[in-house]
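Field notebook, page 259. I keep forgetting to write these up properly, so this time I am using the form the group agreed on. The chain and the ligand, magnesium ion, are recorded exactly as supplied. Prediction of the bound pose follows.
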Amino acid sequence: MKATVNVSIVVPLYNEEGNAEELYRELNSVLAGLHLSYEIVFINDGSTDRTGELLKEISSGDPHVVVINFRRNFGQTAAMSAGFDYSCGEVIVTMDGDLQNDPADIPKLLDKISEGNDVVAGWRFQRRDPFLSRRLPSMIANRIISWITGVKLHDYGCTLKAFRKDVAENIRLYGEMHRFIPAIASAVGISIAEVRVNHRARRHGTSKYGISRTFRVILDLITVKFLLSYSNRPIHVFGLIGLVSLGMGALISFILILQ
Ligand code: UDP
Ligand code: MG
């Protein structure tokens, strides 16, 4: 059994060779100033550039750092899920590995957790991403997610979030679901807070996503809605489909008999 630490930082990285070292430096300077025990869990999601080598070098020089290497690219949600499984922190903080999230915001998130919240979500109130391909679809998706899940957050897509370990432990992730953690978590009655966080433009490397992600997010939202509303009464969905089919079948038979 691993000893626990106060905070685990979980960061998925896929081809982030231009960002890995600077990210580590920034994380290190923030975390060293906190006087808490901590670990940094980097998940190398099958990078084909020098990310893996750089992370290995970083971890060999700092016992706080652990690297999980995926054999191929499994996606950000799978990487975060592996990070949750590995982490031993009382609080888990997730963030992107491309320097768009700012490690300097971590203390703010931890403060909100200390105030008694179970989940704290970052809100990129001045988001530095292209408007048409990113901010606009995300504005629409945020509205829809808010409406369907009933959890009112401004920004579901921000990876910078903090969770109490027991909350993180009880949530299985797949697809694009990491963004629905607050919604899933609120269904089991936990408290969520939101804090404004800094957001920076990507300076090195490229974004791994295009507009198609918006569609995947919406599809996953259907699964989440199902999990939230019908997981303990699936007959209300499938039974309804069955009843409608039965009704239509009976109607067609009736029409055919009459003819
Ligand atoms: N990422 C990952 N696996 C993937 C795609 C992305 O681990 O298959 C990581 C990526 O390296 C970054 C974070 O997830 O640290 C967010 O990705 P990106 O910056 O491309 O997304 P955007 O900011 O454009 O939404
Ligand atoms: Mg990014």
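OBSERVATIONS:
- The beta strands are 5-13, 38-44, 65-69, 89-94, 119-124, 161-164, 192-197.
- The pocket of uridine-5'-diphosphate (ligand 1) is lined by residues 12-14, 16, 45, 73, 75-76, 79, 96-98, 100, 207-209 (CB under 6 Å).
FOLLOW-UP: compare against the apo run.
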